[in-house]
Design brief:
Two copies of one chain form a homodimer.
Chain A: H1 6-12, H2 24-37, E1 50-52, E2 58-66, E3 72-73, E4 76-77, H3 78-91, E5 96-107, H4 112-129, E6 133-141, E7 149-159, E8 175-178, H5 184-193, H6 210-219, E9 225-227, H7 233-245, E10 248-252, H8 260-269, E11 283-286, H9 291-299, E12 308-314, E13 321-324, E14 330-332
Parallel strand pairs in A: 5-6, 10-13
Antiparallel strand pairs in A: 2-7, 3-4, 5-7, 8-11, 8-12, 9-11, 10-12, 13-14
Helix pairs in contact in A: 3-4, 6-9
């Protein structure tokens, strides 16, 4: 790649070791690809660090490495996913995200056109979410020492006064809300990975949830727990909350929304939707008296239209998650002990 | 790995895909390795996001992926390096770092004992720097899709009122200070990589510079530019500043400190020390009238004992970095155009 032929290079070129060497090739890549698409006033400062004002409040920070395979999947790609995933982690603390950073680990030989597509998708997700990417970093590793591209994003947000959402705050008698059907992201990834064809394409639910969270917290500032059921799915998220809060859960299977095509795909793939990753859903644990109000708010938001009350928090020294099944029985929804879906996010 | 045999597993075990799957194996790894060594009140909240108060001021954030090879080298390892590198980026904006996040991409089969050694080194560097790791993430990729471990750290800091340090702020007539001898880090890495033996072991200079920066800024708040000459070395950092500020530089070769063993190794390896990475040095550009005071402050700090005034900022529409050589001539210190030292940080 050189200064004169960059357009050509981005169509046909590949990442080489010079793109990570700290010299001119890296400077051109950063300027003509990252800065061009992710343009914003803070990034344009071109420091190694970004400087910006934040509104008053406690600070929230979260980081996530993204190693999803394949890089492109129905409903998104590693670029949009790396924005949504980290914004959601910030939002699940009850905070409104204000900025993102992004670090790229590129494998030698990776097509620059694919990289540009990923950066453009990241820019679009960032723009839609209203949260700029203010600082970044690029490293290159030799062919066979990486897998195309890995992206770590870190999000910073500000927590409004009075909000104290925590995985350890669930109490017996409270209820569990879920913002929509589960399993879409994991099934979309796995279908693509295994080259499975279904009648309708199953798309990832990857989306940024902080707008929905803002509406919910404005109405009910004392929500106890918010959690996005990503890796390990709804089952793992609830087990983590049960563990942190010292409570149990009783879920109603018939209330847990799963799209019919996702359910069918899970049966085919031998997966339990409760353990399949989501990237645009949230669990909310709140007082029973607030449930209807919060569901009304969720139903009015594009990302919460199918929100449902799926169970309740109970006293349980053993911190078990139990599900009342459609057939009138009950089963324990345990931690996932082995591998289910690697590289799902 | 299981709950009962963790001590044994950390001595003899390796990373497997379940450590990234979101289930129990991952929870145990996070609790018994990451949380145990990096323990601090914010991390103990066990959110996906960390929540903490910060002092008033503008926020500074910086992120860096670390892919250094080999993972362990004289004077440090990827764990300590990933702490120092990001703290330094925050400090070079003139800010004092307050917290770090860390995301790990682990390759299947990587020895858990090595991972523990890296996390312990990270914990020590974080503790010595007085900046806690408040949030993290772990992903696992299949054998052959990574290279042991990659670590992305993100640092957050607070910028004191009145400080406006920027790579674009250098002005003709100002002077260039350098905090100590150059090339140690790059030569230490390359010596280890190439299995070279020298009479004395050359150690990386990897260190956290925010303490030195704090002392310098307290004395001279209107320093114009701070920059750590990492990838691409002193030459690249000065070219970037020249470009951002629209100025030129004239350096005095005889004033630029290089350890004799580093100089000898560079000759053997065919490297120019000006282009070799450092991880514990800083460039400071300031008014000539402040130079002596800043050098005195640097000399009184363990990381600035060999600080020197190495050149000056000049008017130059072509933004060139020129060096007056020991022999009375002059040469242009250009951008590095190709690959020199990949995976140096």
């Amino acid at each position: 790649m050189n200064n004169t032929g960059k357009g050509q290079s981005f169509r046909t070129g590949t990442v080489d070791m010079t793109h990570g060497g700290g010299g001119r090739a890296m400077a051109v890549l950063i300027k003509d690809l990252f800065y061009r698409h992710l343009k914003n006033p803070v990034l344009d400062q071109a420091h190694d660090a970004a400087v910006f004002d934040i509104p008053p409040g406690r600070l929230v920070i979260s980081t996530d490495a993204h190693v999803v395979s394949p890089l492109f999947f129905p409903g998104g790609d590693i670029g949009s996913l790396s924005v949504h995933g980290t914004l959601n982690d910030v939002a699940m603390a009850g905070a409104q995200p204000v900025s993102l950073t992004a670090s790229f680990i590129l494998e030698e030989g990776f097509p620059l056109a694919d990289l540009e597509r990923i950066v453009m998708s990241m820019a679009q997700a960032s723009s839609q979410a209203g949260v700029p990417v203010v600082s970044g970093d690029t490293k290159v590793v030799e062919k066979g020492k990486g897998d195309g591209v890995f992206i770590t994003t870190t999000g910073v947000g500000v927590l409004p006064e009075g909000v104290a959402i925590s995985p350890g705050a669930a109490q017996a008698g409270q209820v569990v809300l879920l913002s929509g059907p589960i399993g879409d992201h994991g099934v979309a990834i796995l279908s693509k990975r295994e080259n499975l064809e279904f009648e309708t394409e199953i798309r990832s639910d990857s989306a940024a949830l902080h707008g929905l969270v803002e509406n919910m917290i404005s109405a009910v500032p004392d929500i106890s727990v918010l959690r996005d059921p990503t890796r390990g799915g709804l089952a793992t998220a609830l087990n983590e909350i049960a563990h942190a809060s010292g409570v149990g859960f009783v879920l109603q299977e018939k209330e847990i929304p799963v799209r019919p095509d996702v359910r069918a795909a899970c049966e085919l793939l031998g997966l339990d939707p409760l353990y399949v990753a989501n990237e645009g859903k949230l669990i909310c644990i709140c007082e029973a008296a607030d449930a209807t109000r919060l569901l009304d708010i969720a139903h009015a938001h594009p990302l919460g239209r199918e929100a449902a009350r799926i169970g309740e928090v109970v006293e349980d020294g053993d911190r078990m998650v139990v599900m009342q099944t459609d057939f009138g029985g009950a089963r324990v929804v345990d931690w996932l002990s082995g591998e289910q879906l690697p590289r799902i996010c």
